[in-house]
Amino acid sequence: MNATLPWFLSGKFPLYLAPMAGVSDKIFRQLCKERGADVLVTEFVSAEGVFRRNERTREYLDFDECERPLGVQLFGGHAGHMAEAARHVIDWVRPDFIDLNFGCPVNKVVAKNGGSALLKDCPALAAVAGAVVLAAAPMPVTAKIRIGWDDQSVNAPSVARLLEDLGIAAIAVHGRTRAQGYSGPANWDVIGEVAAAVHVPVIGNGDIANAADVAKRRRETGIAGVMIGRAAMSAPWIFDQIKHELATGELLSPPPLGDRWALIQRHCQLAVEEWQDEINAMRSMRSRLMAYSKGFPNSKALREKFQQVSTLRDLGQIAVQHVDSHAALTLPA
User: Fold this and answer.
1) CB contact at 8 A, 263 and 35
2) Stated pTM of the model
3) Any catalytic annotation for residue 32?
4) 32, 66, 104, 122: which is the annotated catalytic residue?
C-alpha cells in the first residue's frame, strides 16, 4: 500500500464519504466525520473555475482542519488547466490529496469532456492524470472512475492499470456504467477485477448500506476500503454503525428518534449560520430533509411538511409533533 496514503497502512480499512454535488459540503462532511467517516472528499470542483480564479468556485475548497484527511476533487478535460488548477488548490488550501473525477455521469460535465466522458477517451484521460500527478507532486493524487461508459465498453480494469502506471495512488470504483447513472445494481464483480488488476488501493463504491455489505464486498473482492454516498445522506451515523459491527459482530441500532431530530436541527442551524439568510437556507435544505426522512416513522406525511418548511421554528414544531406522535403510537396499551 502506498505510504503517501497512511489511512491504508497497518491493515486499516477506511470508510470514505463519497463526494456528492450539493450534498458533501463542509457542514455535512463534518457531521459524517463526527460519526465515524475516515476520509472525506469535497464536492467536485471545476478545474476551469479554479484555473480562472473564480471566487465562487474557490468557496467549494473551504474546509476545516478537523476534516482531515481530506481530498479536493477536480473535474475537467483539459490536461494543462487541470494541472494548473491542482497547483492552485495546493497553494490555496493544502489538502491531503487531489482526487480526479473520471466518473460523474451528469450531462453538463460529460458535454465538456469531463467526468465519465474520459472513460471513452483513454489518451485524454491519461494526459489529464499524468499532468496532474506531475503538477501535484509530492502530494498524492487519487482518481474515481466508473466501470465503463456503457455495458458494451466496460473497461475499468484497463483504465485502472493505466492510472496506476501514471502514478495515481488509489482508485475508487463506482460499480455502475455512465449509462446506468444511479439506477440498477452496482457490478461488484468488475470492482473485484479492478482490485486484482492493480497494486494500489482500490475503494469500492455502490449499494453499500450496512456492515454486512462491507464485510461481503471486502471478502469477495479484496478492496482496500469502501466509499459510501447515498446511504450516508439519510443516515450519517452509518459509519459508526459499520465500524461497531465489524469490530464486535454486534448490530448497532440507529440513534433514538430524538437524537436523529437533534442532528437534523443542528444541520439546519449550521446551514442558516453559513448562509446568513434563514429562509433561503431552509429552502436549500428541503431536499436534504427529504433524504433524512427515509426510515422515519410516518415518513410520507413528514416529507409533505418538509416541502413547506421555511424557518428553524417551523422545523422545531415539526420535530416536536413527530416525536410526540411517535411516542403516543408506541406506548403500551
Assistant:
1) no
2) 0.94
3) no
4) 104
